[in-house]
Amino acid sequence: MQRYVPTILVLVIGMSLGYGVAASGGPVQALLRPMKALSHLISSPGDALKEGLKPQPPSSSASAKNAVFWLSSFESSEEIDRRWKTRSVVAKVDKLHASHGLSAARLTYQMATAPAFMMENYLDSGHGDWRGYEALEFDLTNANPSQERMILKLKDQDGRGYSEDIFVNSGASQHIRVRLEDVQGYLDLSHVIQLNLFRWKPRKEATFYLDAVCLTPAAQRIPESDTTGSSGSSVIPVSAAVTPQESWQVKWVSGLTKVFRDPALLEQAATPPLRLALSKGEYESVQILVIGGEQPVQVKVSVGPLTHSDGQTQFPNGVVEIRRVDYVTTKQPYYPVTFVGDWPDPLPSADTIDVPAGQVQPIWITVGAPTHLVAGQYNATITLRGSDGRIEQMELIVTLWDFTLPRTASLKTAFDFYPSRLRKTYQEFVLGGSVWETRLEELQRLYYLDMLKHRVSPILQADPSNARFQQEIAEYLNRGLSALGIGSRGGSNGNNWPKDPGQLEQVMSWYRKAAESLRFQQLLDLAYVYTYDEPQPGDPKVARVMAAIHQVDPALKNLLVMHYAPDPVQHADWLKDADIICLRIASFDPAQAQQLKGMGKEVWMYVSSPAHPFPALVIDYPAIAHRILPWMAWKYGATGLLYWCVDFWNGDPWQDPANFSKDQNGNGALYYPSAEGPVPSIRMEALRDGIEDYEYLTLLNTLLESAKGMEDSDPTLFEQGRKLVGVGSDIVDSLRSYSKDPERLLAYRKAVAETIEKLQRVLAR
Questions:
Q1: Rg of the chain taking only CA atoms, in angstroms
Q2: Cα gap 649→417, rounded to integer Å
Q3: 46: alpha, beta or left? (left if phi > 0; alpha if psi -120 to 50)
Q4: Fewer CB within 10 A of the terminal residue: the chain, N end or C end?
Q5: What does pTM read for this prediction?
Q6: Does residue 287 come out as left (phi exceeding 0), alpha (psi in the -120 to 50 range) or beta?
Q7: Domain 249-404 classification at class level
Q8: How many C-beta neighbours within 10 Å does residue 239 have?
Q9: Of 743, 740, 704, which Cα lies nearest the Cα of 721?
Q10: May I ask the CATH class of domain 48-217?
Q11: Helix, strand or coil for residue 21?
Q12: Which tens digits make up the pLDDT trace of 28-47?
C-alpha cells in the first residue's frame, strides 16, 4: 500500500477504531505501516488536510524535498482557472468524490480528437523542478457506466515526454502513483512543463472526478521481510561499467539484460565465472559480452562438457545452445522508451561471432536440463578463440535444483500464428523465394514446435475431423501443448460469424462434428473456440454465437477476449455462455476477476499494443517486462495467457520491426524469418523464463498444500513459503507497477527454489 497523504484521513479513522479495510481490500495493518513512515513529514494530519493549504513551491535543492507538495487540491474554481487549462473539457469544482479537502474537480471530456485537462503555466513558473520527490500521486474517479481509459502525459522543456495509460472501472475510484524513478529515464525532472490528462478520440462524452494531485517525498518505509533467502547477497556478482581497451574483453550478464552496442550504455557487467541455476526440465540463459578492442575481430565460441561435481555425471550433448544476439533498428513509438535505435532482439544460431571495434557483441548461451539428471553443481569450460590468435577461457557454473518442471505448463497459453503471413514473407524476403511454396507446411510445423519449446501453445485453429489431426496433435501434446483452438471462425478470423441465423446454424453443424470427434479422442477438455475478439460488452451478436456453440455441445468452451472488462453484475446474463474470459492486462481488475471466477469462469489475461506502464511484448521494453507477465498472472489468479500473433510480418522484420504499426516496435512478431527456420527473439526467451517461474510458484503452492498439518516441524519454513507464493509487492506491486531490477527477481526465484527443496525434504520424512 503506497497511498500516503491522500489517505491520511482514512488512516487516522482506522487507527482510532482499531480496524478497517483499505480501498484495495487490504487490512488496516497494511495502512499503518506507511503512516508510520510519513509521521516525520507532517506534524499534524489535520493541518495537511486543511482547506486552502498553501505550500511553498518545490525547492531547487533535491535534498530539501522532505514534505508533500500539493500541485492542486481543487478547493475553488479560481484554482482551476489559475493552474489548469482545458481543451474540449468542462471543468468545475464539485463536492462529490473529494479525497482531499472538501471538493474535487469534475471533468467532462467531450467528443474531440484529444480532449485534455492540462497544467502548464503553473509548472513553468517555478513549480516544475520535481527532483527529490518520489512520486506524482492523484485520485481519479470514473463516473461513467463503463470502464474508461485516461492517458497521463508529462513533458519537459526539451519536448521529451512520458505517458501512462489509466483504465478505471465504472463507478470506481483509483489512486494513481507514478514513481518518478521510473520517469527520470524519459524526461528531465528538473524542468517539467506539462502535466496532461487526456483522452484519445473518445467515442462518447465522459465524466471523471480528479483530486489530490501532489508530489510525495521519499519516506522511511519499513522494509518487507527478506524473502530472497540469500542474506542480501547478489545472485550475479557485478563490476563497474566497461570501457573499450586495445584488445577485446569478456564480461557477462544474465538473460534479463538487454545489452546495447555502445559500451557506455552498459552500466554493470560481471566478470567470469558465469553462473546460472535451473531445475530439471527447464531452460535458462546467460550472455557472454565481448567488448571490441581497437580492431574488429571474429570469435569462435565452444562449450565443453557440463560435468557434475562427482566427476562422472554429465549433461548430454546438444543441450547447450549458442546464439548470436542481433540488432534491429526501432522507430520512435507513441509509448515512452529510454532509447530509439538499434535494439537487441533476434537470436540466430551461431558459434562464430563478428565483434565490431569498440562495440559490445553479446553471445546468448542457453542450457536446457533433461529430467533424468542428478541435482547438484555442474561445471564447464567456455572457450573463445579470436581471429587475432587470442584465446580466452572461462568457467560456467550451473546449479541444478532437485525438482522437475512438468512438460505441459500449468499456465495455459494461446498465441496465434498466421500462415498467410508466413507464406508472403518467405516468398518475398527469405532466400529461396517461390521455392518456399512447397515447404510451407513443414515451415509451419517448425514454428509450432519452437513455440512449444518456449512453452507457448499455438492456437492452431484445428479441424479435429481431419485425417491428419490425430498424428499432428499427438506430436504437439508430447511437446507440451496446453490448450487447443478449433475452427476457422471467430477471433482469429475477424469475428467472421454469419449474421443470418440460418447460415449460423449451418456453420454450427461443423462444430457439432468437431465436438463429437474431440470427445471420442478425449480432447474436449483441452479445446476451446476463440469465439470473439474484443467486442463491446453487452453486444447481442456475441451472446447469440456463444449460446449457439453451447447448444452444439455444452462442454465446448467459448473463449471471449475483452479489451474493456465487462462488469460481472451488469453483464452477468450476457456472460452466461462464456467459459474463458480473457482480459487485457491494462483493464484487468483483480476484484472483478475474482467475481468472474466465482461465476464459474476461467480468467485469462492478454497483452497487445503497449499501454505503458503495464508490461508488454514489444522490442523496446526491458526484458523483465516480458518475464513478469506470468508472475502477474499467478498473483492475480489468471490461469491463461493469450497473445494475438507471433508472426505478423508486414515486410522484412529484420529491416523494419515496426511491422503492425509504425509507432509500435515488434508488436505481433516474436520471431524472425530465416532460411534455417524460426529465429526466436529475446522476448520469447524471457517469456519462457517467466512461464517456468510460474511453474516454480505452482509447485511451491502444491507442496504447501500437501504439507498441511506439518507446520510444527518448521514454522519459519512454512511462513516463508506462504509469503513467497503470494508474490511480494517488491516483485509485483500491481499490474501497472513491478520491479525493474533483474537481480531482485532472480533472488526471489532462488528463494522459491530453495524453499521447494526444503519442503520436499519435509514431506519425504
A1: 27
A2: 11
A3: alpha
A4: C
A5: 0.87
A6: beta
A7: mainly beta
A8: 10
A9: 704
A10: mainly beta
A11: strand
A12: 233 223 333 333 333 222 33
